[in-house]
């Protein structure tokens, strides 16, 4: 619901405390919405009833209705909107998640460090960690216990902090460059009064003198620092002439008076661009697989579920300890080294270096698991070799036959 979208910002030394309080208030507002539990809108025509009675498949599990199945009308408890016919058992398990995902780009790398203490201690509720190391977290979840209806608190709202970099693992600058400007709807709505030329200045990653700002007083300066101070000791680089010119244009066109005002605009465009990028990513994923990545921690978890949904397969768990140990003993790590890839192509589509006197060559990159390979230099493995799903008994050992193409 775009009418519920809002942007807020605050500048001050207590900004983290302000941020945590805003999240706390957001959780309580969201809880009010969840507690509405709207009744389902009644069917208004015989056609709707006929479609419900004639439906052959549950819209949730997508499996057919059997004669003995109890079918019900599934609806959204937040809006009252009818969603489709469903098995009664599916309908009972199809409940709302009391989770608000909070996305940071590079949460695991740095951004979590300066908020985690306030998140943990500012209000009542436990913190669940999903760690990579003692200092880096894939995600952490704060339970807002004061939103619970029951004494146990299991139905309380939860703030789940997730790293968008775990889905889109490149810089915000590159992600923005990949997205068509017609899809920048969120930032457009916040700057709807701008003409096309001014708006274009905000549709690229901003430039900021991070290391120059070493005190709050610096935010009161009334001009941009020189280009040499737009440097980074992490990358040992200074802002390019083009990037510095962009910062100068933004300062001038938006009539900025202080570095604090410039910082406010820089942060606002950063947040709104990330929102547009991730919302477009969500739309694409939902359209393709009908699964929302906002409810996952990392991209591999999402793609695993997408595979299960798309293929419809069901795995049988290994319960034989001997089989488990047999599989574990066969696990090997991948190649680990620093390598510099090089390959030279020569074809008519590469105009800059095409040599018609030489044979035409093309490049294609494959990252292939051996068991499923059909192409590249792994092609000697049969395409019939697939990972097992179930019924995996031990087979008697056989001596490999040298005449066979592949011995086991």
Beta fraction: 5-15%
Which structural class do the helices and strands define?
A: alpha+beta
Rg: 28 Å
Helices and strands, in N-to-C order? HHEEHEHHEEEHHHEEHHHH
Total DSSP E strands: 8
Helix content: 25-40%
> CA-to-CA gap between the ends?
57 Å
Q: Please state how the strands of the largest beta sheet are arranged side by side.
A: 3-6-5-4
The number of domains: 4
Short description:
The chain is α+β, with helices and mostly antiparallel strands and 408 residues long.
List keywords for this structure.
single chain; 408 residues; alpha+beta; 4 domains; four-stranded mixed β-sheet; two-stranded antiparallel ribbon; 10% strand; transferase; nucleotidyltransferase
Provide the fold topology:
Elements (H helix, E strand, L loop, with lengths): L14 H20 L11 H9 L16 E5 L6 E6 H6 L5 E6 L2 H5 L4 H6 L5 E5 L5 E8 L12 E7 L8 H7 L6 H6 L5 H6 L29 E2 L4 E2 L2 H13 L5 H31 L9 H13 L9 H9 L79
Parallel strand pairs: 3-6
Antiparallel strand pairs: 1-2, 4-5, 5-6, 7-8
GO molecular function: DNA binding; DNA-directed DNA polymerase activity; nucleotide binding
Family: Belongs to the DNA polymerase type-B family.
Keywords: DNA replication, DNA-binding, DNA-directed DNA polymerase, Nucleotidyltransferase, Transferase
